[in-house]
Amino acid sequence: MYASNGFNSALSGVRAGMQSMQKHASDIAGTVDVQVKNQPSLAESLVGLKMSKLQVQASMQVIKTLDEVIGTLLDVRA
């Protein structure tokens, strides 16, 4: 049960990180269009993209760790 909650949280983190990456990538692509108002700066978008990448990596590490823990528990029970 706890592992399921952990997986769901980690998957939510991956989804949120990927959505954020798409937004920042779109912002970066849009910086060439100088007519767009209220657009984040290139630096802000690059930092946001890096933060999103780290969020996805951290969430994936949680998934990997939970997978290893479940595998260990199954080995012990077998």
Give an overview in words.
The chain is mainly alpha-helical. The protein has one domain (2-77). The chain has helices at residues 2-30, 42-77. It starts with a helix and ends with a helix. The model has no long low-confidence stretch (mean pLDDT 86).
Our measurement of the CA-to-CA distance between the termini, rounded to an integer number of angstroms, reads: 19 Å
Instruction: State the order of secondary-structure elements, H for helix, E for strand.
Output: HH
Gross morphology: rod-shaped
Structural class: mainly alpha
Q: What average pLDDT do the residues reach?
A: 86
Number of E strands:
0
Q: Could you name the ranges where pLDDT drops below 50 across 5 or more consecutive residues?
A: none
Tell me the strand percentage band. under 5%
Task: Supply Rg.
Answer: 18 Å
**Helix proportion of residues, in percent?**
over 70%
The helix count comes to: 2
Q: Largest sheet, if any?
A: none
Domain module tally? 1
